[in-house]
Amino acid sequence: MKTLILGTRGSDLALVQTRDVAARLGRAHPDLVFGEKIIRTTGDKRLDVSLPAPGALDKGLFTKELEEALLDGSIHAAVHSLKDLPTEQPPGLVISAILERADLSDALASKYAGGWRGLPQGATVATSSLRRKNQFLLLRPDAKIEEIRGNVPTRLRKVLENPAIDALIVASAALARLGGNTVPDGLEVTTIGEMLPAPGQGAVAVECREDDAETRAVLASIHHEPTARCVRAERELLRELGGGCHLPLGARAVIENGELRLLAGLFEANGIRWLSR
User: Fold this and answer.
1) For residue 271, which phi and psi values (nearest 5 degrees)?
2) Is residue 169 within a helix (H) or strand (E), and if so which, with residue range?
3) Torsions phi, psi of 175, nearest 5?
4) How far is residue 56 from each of residues 46, 53, 126, measured CA to CA in Å?
5) Exposed/middle/buried for residue 189 (C-beta within 10 Å: 0-12, 13-18, 19+)
6) Whole-number pLDDT of residue 60
7) Residue of 31, 48, 58, 84 with catalytic role
8) pLDDT at 180
9) Which ranges of 30-168 does DSSP label H, i.e. alpha helix?
10) Residues carrying CATH 3.40.190.10, the chain
11) pLDDT at position 61
């Protein structure tokens, strides 16, 4: 193999993650040349669809077209935010590398200082995630939740420009990867430590064809097994519950003294069902 083509969505975050994968692989395999193919997914095209709605298109909203490109051979590997990947993969595809996990917490980008406690009574908070909505309402039952779609910079701009919205909930890892200039002046970012993240949040996965031994061997050089062990536990719980990426499940696995510990909660509209292992 002389050239390895990486498939990616076209958002700023997806491109940053894909170029990070290419840089890591380049350090491990200096003779390889890397190409990049941008593929628009259904989730990128259908901004009119409510993500939490039952039957909102399909489980592979942000991954299906990338996986089709893998199967037809137009790309060698696809780079995903792991939390977007369904727990059941199409036959013939495997996750061959998971990068070391970034900050897995959720963050609040707010027009007010003081984090979620500093929001005014009855504040309007934007998110398209049912998990985030249900957890945040446990912290602030007075809040109103506004659904919002678009890539991270677009969502931040929408919040800043809309006087009716006070804050946005977003992944801390996304803000960190996009860099300091992503958050516009007028918004203050704080971590929401009380909320459990989505299974796989903060992790980047690289998928390829199961029968492509050469690509699998190349990708193995950037695999981070401690992260993989944690996210496998989180995703296995999600799979056992029969849920897709939009099930309101929060899960955080950590390795302490060599032992994996998993804290999880299913945040339903009428209360919490706690799960632990």
Assistant:
1) 145, -170
2) strand 167-171
3) -65, -40
4) 10, 5, 19
5) middle
6) 74
7) 84
8) 75
9) 42-45, 64-71, 130-139, 152-161
10) 3-102+199-276, 106-192
11) 76
Whole-number pLDDT of residue 57: 40
Distance from the first to the final alpha carbon of the chain: 43
Task: Please report the pLDDT score of residue 56 as a whole number.
Answer: 42
Please tell me the distance from the alpha carbon of residue 52 to that of residue 192, in angstroms, as a whole number.
21
Provide CATH code, domain 106-192: 3.40.190.10
> Would you state the pLDDT for residue 54?
45
pLDDT, tens only, 59-105: 677 899 999 999 999 999 999 999 989 998 899 999 999 999 999 99
Known catalytic membership, residue 12 = no
Query: Residue with structure tokens 């990486």?
Result: 6
**Token pair in block for residue 213:** 């031994």
List 81's β-bridge partners, or say none. 204
Full-model pTM: 0.90
Which residues lie below 8 Å from residue 44, measured CB to CB, with a gap of 6+? Answer: 9, 10, 11, 62
Report strand pairing: 3-8 vs 33-38. Answer: parallel
Q: Residue 66: CB partners within 8 Å, gap ≥ 6?
A: 7, 8, 9, 39, 41, 75, 78, 80, 207
Starting from the edge strand earliest in sequence, which strands make up the sheet with 204-209, in order? 33-38, 3-8, 77-81, 204-209, 93-98
Q: Give every residue of the chain whose pLDDT is below 70, as ranges.
A: 1, 45-59, 244-245, 271, 273-277
Query: In which residue are the tokens 């193999």 written?
Result: 1
- Who's near 267: CB < 8 A, 6+ residues apart? 130, 131, 134, 135, 138, 248, 249, 250
Looking at domain 3-102+199-276, its CATH class is: alpha beta
pLDDT of residue 51: 54
Structure tokens at 155: 């969502």
Q: What is the pLDDT of residue 48?
A: 53
